[in-house]
Amino acid sequence: xxxxxxxxxxxxxxxxxxxxxxxxxxxxxxxxxxxxxxxxxxxxxxxxxxxxxxxxxxxxxxxxxxxxxxxxxxxxxxxxxxxxxxxxxxxxxxxxxxxxxxxxxxxxxxxxxxxxxxxxxxxxxxxxxxxxxxxxxxxxxxxxxxxxxxxxxxxxxxxxxxxxxxxxxxxxxxxxxxxxxxxxxxxxxxxxxxxxxxxxxxxxxxxxxxxxxxxxxxxxxxxxxxxxxxxxxxxxxxxxxxxxxxxxxxxxxxxxxxxxxxxxxxxxxxxxxxxxxxxxxxxxxxxxxxxxxxxxxxxxxxxxxxxxxxxxxxxxxxxxxxxxxxxxxxxxxxxxxxxxxxxxxxxxxxxxxxxxxxxxxxxxxxxxxxxxxx
DNA sequence: CGGTTTTGACCTGCGC
DNA sequence: GCGCAGGTCAAAACCG
Length: 374
Description:
Elements: H1 2-11, E1 17-18, E2 28-32, H2 36-41, H3 43-51, H4 61-64, E3 74-81, H5 85-97, E4 100-103, H6 116-128, H7 149-154, H8 156-165, E5 185-191, E6 203-210, E7 217-223, E8 231-236, E9 243-249, E10 267-268, E11 274-275, E12 301-303, E13 309-315, H9 327-333, H10 344-347, H11 353-363, H12 369-373
Parallel strand pairs: 1-13, 2-12, 3-4
Antiparallel strand pairs: 2-5, 3-13, 5-9, 6-7, 7-8, 8-9, 10-11
Helix pairs in contact: 1-6, 3-5
The protein binds a DNA duplex (16 and 16 nucleotides) through strand 6 and strand 7.
Domain WRKY: 192-257
Subcellular location: Nucleus
Pfam families: WRKY
């Protein structure tokens, strides 16, 4: 269906910012992949969706930066290089979610990334090259997967041949020209002894692959909840085996089955977001599926976001023991020691997926903005 | 027995 | 076109 393809072309874009915020012993940066539409119309909105922040929990993005009621436990000096409102909003969001005061430069610093307004179309094309979602129709169908379903149904003939080629396996019909719409992504690094972090959701492992240039395999998980197509990938850093890189993709269409105290509850959002499972949550800020850590885990986060957004931050005196006004700090503070990762860039060399997602921004000079998500 | 993990095969995209 | 690497499928094995 051509229409579908066009939808993919026009509706997708990625917004990425790379942000490393060293905070005493806490490093945080990551990657987000967000729908173009959301990014353009309401960058923060999309971003918030991604983060699982409900719009109705928060003022419009352009107002965010002026949020006066943020609980400030730390003073953060932020040097930001970005353009347009989106980064600003995101920066505000970040500072807000981390309950830090962010000082923004009056003049945006020269950004290695083009302004978001010009980047978005590019990234949109790039994303358009992503493969078709290979979700099996036999399994759950997320909202995004629905997009590909009709296509799969229509291509019976051609795919029958493919299926016949396979022996007993019922391989899923796929349309060659159909580009897969990639779900919003959220990647972060954790310093942990265990690969599987408890983030409140239930995951089923559906695959494991060896990663090039890494002795550690990458595991693929899918949310076990029916109708939820959220996936996550977990791999261990080859450079530092103690670091686990977790990448979430998609949005939950359900509340967290288990929202233990301190864990992050995530619920579906329309554009790649995760929201608190219960409306009773007083806090609008929820970092998507950040794990409910277990003992002996030490974490550092690579926290990313939209491509056109490039924010570098430095923080002093950050104390993870912040207030309940922010889920993220709450999450951060949860009975864990966070090791500062001296240089995220140095850690981003051979992380396979992580490298795809993060390193380009971290390296900042390369112009693989579009590639990094793909 | 139902759910999860393992694992080899298969598919797809991309670079050469 | 080919090979590689990433991603997914699904049967079998495993586990509580």
